[in-house]
Amino acid sequence: MWCYTPGVSRPQVWSYLLLLLSLGGIGYAAVTDQQVLLAGSALMLGMVTWPLGGLARWLSPVVYAAAFVASLTLPGNRPDLLELLGALLLIGGLGYITLREQGSTHELAWQRNTIAALRAGSERLAEARDADAIIRAGIGILDKLQVAPNMAFVAYRQGTPHILAARGVFEAFLDRPIHPSDSDSRSVQADHWVAEEVLALLKKPQRRSYHVAPVYGRASTHLGVLILTRDTETPFDEDETSVIASFARLLGAQLGQWNAIRELRDANDLTLRSLGAALERRDDDTGGHTNRVVSGSARLARRLSWADDQVKALRWGAYLHDLGKLAIPDSVLHKRGPLDPEERRIIQTHTTVGYDMLQDLHFLPAETLDLVRYHHERWDGTGYPAGLRGPNIPDTARLFSIVDVYDALTNARPYKPAWTRERALNEIRMQAGRQFDPQYVEAFLRMMAEQDDAHLVL
């Protein structure tokens, strides 16, 4: 009855049997001087050991050569020239096939590793939230490729090159500015001298071989340079330089896209700021209201650890919160004294009118539109336009309303003089749980107290 060791598959058992059979055949052929059997057994041994990879693939030519030499030592054995030539051809053929296939295996493993690293790295690049995160993710890809132990990405900050990301010995120089080592006048955008200065940071044994790859973004915009070094004399081969160049293009495309998005956001921010300033001219004779509420809201949001995207949405909403007042008649908007019920109804429409006016600006996030529509809602549900209550009021609107009311109280309006700081803060405190979110009020009051302490220190 046939049996096998638990945990060993049937193909593995057959491989072991064929291995033993091949070695036995080689041994018997060497002792009996059967050259045909010796060659056949060596070929079978090669087929058995081939799937094992590595040094096991050299077992067949080595064992065959040893067995053939051993057969020559047998008494009375006088091989002719054809036998010697046949043996040499067989050994050379087995060696050549082994070398070639090992190269192919290494190349296949390199390609698989490259694909895996680029796939994982592209996901990290896509998830990166800013340029520094993109650069770090990019260096991480190269590190996984194991192209070189030492690498650095050098980019320009305010006209001066800095090492922004690194691996290996370059990590000791992170964030270091790179300056010319001599007094010659040089272009700060010249990759050759930047690379020379960065390479000079390392000891000679750490940079026996190196490769430099420029990184370009959209419209051939120069974004930086990749520098890789090895402590061996082995030069970077064509496959490696090709992969590095592909990676540099990927990194440049991602950085270029991020820069384009940042420029668009900056343009949007500037446009909305200008619009807010124009609106302010119509509603606030003294000026400064928009900048004050934008600044105060952003500071309070950061104190509450809001995410950057949410702070941006809050800031944009603060610029636009009174956009709907463009539709309010001057007789109502600038009336000195209390409003009658109809005038109050008209002024209250500015929240929904502003919200409707912004519907076609698709780049505005929902949190911005929420602030414009709901910044006059009250915690107790008595606000307008929807009578929302408590946490049903969007966060941006809840936070902004505190800063907006405080600024309105401490600055003169056509219908009232300016309140003192202490009186306004006391009113904010009293309205916690009525008009305002109590937790946001507590954070706002702490922020204002710390601001007072800072002024005392100064």
From TrEMBL:
SUPFAM superfamilies assigned to the protein according to its UniProt record, in alphabetical order: GAF domain-like, HD-domain/PDEase-like
Keyword tags: Hydrolase, Membrane, Transmembrane, Transmembrane helix
One example GO MF annotation: hydrolase activity
Pfam family for this entry, one: GAF
PANTHER family: CYCLIC DI-GMP PHOSPHODIESTERASE TM_0186-RELATED, TWO-COMPONENT RESPONSE REGULATOR-RELATED
Organism for this UniProt entry: Deinococcus koreensis
Annotated TM spans: 13-31, 58-74, 81-99
Protein name as it appears in the record: Phosphohydrolase
Coiled coil region boundaries: none
Record flagged with keyword Transmembrane helix: yes
Residues of the HD-GYP domain: 264-458
PROSITE patterns xref list: HD_GYP (PS51832)
Lineage: superkingdom: Bacteria
Iron found in the keyword field: no
